[in-house]
Amino acid sequence: MGRASQVIQMVVCDMAGTTINEDNLVYKTLRQAINQFGYDFTLPHVLTHGAGKEKRQAIESIIGTVEKNLEPQRITEIFQLFLDLLEEKYASAPITPQANAAAFFKALTSKGIRIVLNTGYNKKTAEKLMDRLGWKVGADIDALVTADDVPRNRPHPDMILHAMQRFGIQSGDRVVKVGDSAIDIQEGQNAGCRLNIGITTGAHTKEQLQSASPNYIVDNLMDILPLLD
């Protein structure tokens, strides 16, 4: 193994848009829930201002672009509607692993690198996604960290630091973060990750990812492997 393979102990990947292909269903549903309360946001607007964030936080950010004095009760009602709609849609929507996700996980395992999925979803939603794909902690991945597991969400580094602590990893220099949104990149930077890699398979375009100054931008999970060597 090369030097980086010996140094890097963990790769932290976002879920929807990065390792899971659900055709932006979560943000389409977020848009639907918000717009049912009298707004008229486009999907690109929702993706620009909400991608990668804990979903209540995403609602606040999206509406905050047009309103400054947000009513907490209204945010709570929109968030609950979003959760109800998403549960209904996730029960039947086509959800598949991103291209080469299984091969990517297997390659990381063969290098002795831990695989952690982290997400702005709550634990219930994230575990339902895992079940739909047949992915299991301890078999396909080493850990799942959700917005429910930490006090602060992206761009704060808490989810990555939580995973590092779990596996006794002392320095972000031994961690790589991969995500499909600018806030994923910022999260990794705030955790001091050795590499922060954007991927173009999800919410943000290459140009939007570049705004967060990642170390690399890739189009496929397998493109990450050479960067580790």
Describe this structure in words.
By secondary structure, the chain is an alpha/beta fold. It is built from eleven helices and eight strands. Residues 1-5 have low confidence and may be disordered. It has a six-stranded parallel sheet with strand order 5-4-1-6-7-8. Strand 7, helix 10 and strand 8 form a beta-alpha-beta unit. Helix content is 44%, strand content 13%. Helix 2 packs across helix 3 (43-50). The N and C termini lie close together (7 Å). The chain has helices spanning 3-7, 25-35, 43-50, 55-63, 72-90, 101-110, 123-133, 158-166, 182-190, 206-210, 225-228, and strands at residues 10-14, 20-21, 96-97, 114-118, 143-145, 175-179, 195-199, 216-218. It folds into two domains: 3-22 and 96-228, Rossmann fold (3-Layer(aba) Sandwich), CATH 3.40.50.1000; 25-90.
What general outline do the C-alpha atoms trace? globular
Q: Which percent band covers the strand fraction?
A: 5-15%
What is the CATH topology classification name of the largest domain? Rossmann fold
Overall structural domain count: 2
- In DSSP terms (H or I, runs of 4 or more residues), the helix count works out at 11
Instruction: Give the structural class.
Output: alpha/beta
Strand order of the largest sheet: 5-4-1-6-7-8
- Rg, nearest Å: 17 Å
Low-confidence stretches: 1-5
CATH level 1 class label of the largest domain: Alpha Beta
Task: Measure the end-to-end span.
Answer: 7 Å
Largest sheet: 6 strands, parallel
Q: Helicity level, as a percent range?
A: 40-55%
> Using DSSP, what is the number of strands?
8
| Mean pLDDT metric | 93
